[in-house]
Amino acid sequence: MKSSKNVFILTEAVLAVMVIITAIAMLWGKDGEGRGKVSVIVQNSDDNRWAAFKYGLRMAAQDEEIELFVVSTGGALTTEEETEIVEHEIANGANAVILQPVPGDESEEMLKKLGKKIPVLLIEYPTAGEGRLSDIPIVQPDNYALGQELAKELLNDYNGNVKGKTLGIVSEYGNSEAVAERRKGAVSILKDKGVKVVWEVSEPSKDEEETVLEKKSRVDFVIALDDYSLVLAGKAVTANNLHGALVYGIGNSMEAVYCLDTDSVQCLLVPDDFDMGYQSLVGAAESFGYIFGKPENQTVSFTVMRRENLFSKENQEILFTMSQ
Amino acid sequence: MQKGKAAVKYKYMVQKFLDYFKNIKPRGMQSTIMLVFSAISVAVMMILGVMMYLRVSAASREEMIGSTEKLMEQTGENMEDYLVSMRQISDAVYYNVIKENDFSDQDNDIQQGMKRVYEANRSNLRSIAIYNNYGSLMGAEPVVLQKEDPNVTKQDWYKQAKAETENMHFSTPHIQNLFDDAFRYYWVISLSRVVELTDNGVPQTGVLLVDMDYSSISRMMKQINAKTSGQYYYLCDGSGEIIYHTKQMQINKGICSENSKKAATYKDGVYDEFSGGEHRKVIVNTISYTGWKLVGVIPNSVFTHGMFDIRYFIVLLILLMAMMLGVVNRVVSVRIASPILKLNDSVLEYEAGKKPEIYIGGSMEIRHLGDSIQRSYEQIDMLMHKIVLEQTERRKSELDALQSQINPHFLYNALDSITWMVEGERNDEAVFMISQLAKLFRISLSKGRTVIAVSDELQHAQSYMNIQKVRYKNSFSFVMDVEPAVYSCCTVKLILQPILENAINYGVGGMDEDDGGEIKITGREQNGKMILSVMDNGLGMSEEEVAFLLTDNNRIRKHGSGVGLVNVNNRIQLLFGKEYGISVESEPDEGTVVSVCLPAVPYTEENRKMLEAGLPFGEKILSDIEKRV
Predict the structure, then answer these.
(1) A231 FRET partner, CA 20 to 30 A, in A162, A305, B15, B401?
(2) Which ipTM did the prediction report?
């Protein structure tokens, strides 16, 4: 009799616990539709060159149901500013951060510290120190291959006969690891073919950006290693300030495309920023366990655009991402 | 070998499973009722829950599909209106502007006309342009710088118009590659058609291009895709080329896929599809004239996600009902089982030796049961009491009978007689006396048995009478006339001795030798009964005295051991029943006959034991004898 009573009480207790669990699950299911939050911190985030990247981020966020927050950074950041933003994002409930490290020696140290507080995913290597940050996943194009491909396109236009030709190199951040890799890749091929690097321009100030290239000596080719410098060079060509130099470059904005469309640029290499944005967000979601998987280093592809094939079906898909 | 092992293992598992059920001990009544009620309740609740879920789920699906169809119908109509308006623009430019004017007119009527149409519809239009057969721009609105060599004749919209000159052609979205708008590129859907134009009075064909702003279409599509529940809508052309899709880039990149090619072949309606590892409902609505398909996709996960709350609600409802039914079942089972359990408890207490009141309560049946049990127990108690009394009486009678044998007076007289014989050197007689005394006591004891053979009882009577005859100096004679068959029957021991003692004391004891006093024992068997009679020709008794002999056990006797005929009668009846016993017939001055009636039970060890165990055990033997008779 007593045993039966105990079984009854136990059964009722178990049912009561199940009721509570179900009710909590029901309420949690409603509230828990809020998802993980990923913050994205890149230099000059409002710039057009991030359009495809941000579109990729948005699409991934929509697919994976993640709250995405792209921090608006008016211009170039310092390491301290970037650290401060990350700290602020952590305080605001970010579960992971996608970061473009500030070029400079301090970024590696900063990333080591941040990596202990929050999962970090990079879209560019920090300026090379002694060793790479092996434990932080990176999604980026193969910058060395980009540089090499740029050089190959240049050589193709001249059937490899470029011996004695002169070259100018333009970049936004000379101390950026990505730029350094691209430069290394391009120069490694061009130097072998006898091209002489006459000058290099990096980090031009706002005041001098319109005249910096004009002041340089005449060269046969100008290689622009990033979107900013490509548009700068394109504009210089349009303004006939580049002394007839042919521009080859890497870019990812509609301005860069326009430069190609108007023949100011001979060849444009476009990294697949949509894919970079998409994969980096998926990697970030994986890094804090929102979706199953382990974030790994990923290399995104790039496309070679020429004026002739600029509006091909395949390229229009890329332009679509850049115009979002 | 492996197969054999598996078979053995399987057999072992089955056996273990069966053993488990065999070893299930019977549960209490309340537990069983509770268990059965609960099992039925749970089964009913589960069935109800599942049915409710399926019904609600089906209704929800139907509603979702219905609302999707309505939404798509509305959007399709809006889109058709939009496309019709574009066609009307194209018609207006063609029939009202181009056909009516010559491009060489100085008044620039064509440009003015195009401008009017453009201004009236600029919110949805990107541009209107007319190209001649060579792809040269004849006119455009708004007026902007044409790109250097846009290679118009190679563009799809131009080729399509030229391929089918009688139709209007809607392109898929593309970047407008015609005009230079300084860093700006526009996504447009081109409506192109071949037109007849007049230039310098020369009629020729050209292509009229109306570029619609893609954002108008995408805005409509974005509006219906605003919900993020997993349900989505896309637009494709008649060949399955996607015009708008929320995951257009993911599809282009191969991150996900869409069955747009297949959907383009569907007629309007609802279809089941399996795509991307998931079943889904596909609703197709065709946009008239263009052949575009507006497709709504509802993955099955959307239905189930929509049912998320319902599922939890039903589970919650089932759990609450289970809790409530648990309580109800408990109350009902307690109400049903409680009287039975109380009755059972009182019976258990009774069995444990206590004397509780048997519980009488609950329903009519249980009350009746309790009442019956109580009456049974009362009867058992009464019978037990009776048995105990009878046993006590029997022991007392036997003790009395035994005591009669060691009656000091009898023993003193016997020993005095022996002493007297020894003194008179009548050794043979003394020896005879002693041997008779020994036999008397041997049979009296009879190893503690109550039932002995008639032969032993007669021997005992003989020994007693031999001793008494010496004491009474042979003043009476003693004879036995017993049928041989009677010797081997059973009898209660020491029943003749008290009768003989009475016969001597009250009959022939006071007679002289010359009076010819005689005591005779006869033994007969008739009708399964054995009659042992002790007859004397002594003083006899009146009827009143005879009546007293068998009823008054407390009267004080003048002679003898004091063990009356009542005692003998009781002992016989205790063992053999009321129909057996002693009967006395006497006539004053004539003599007395005391007859002992016993069943003629053959003396065997088995019969003896059964008879000694008491009436209930001996009944079988007695009934056998009765049947035999």
Answers:
(1) A162
(2) 0.83
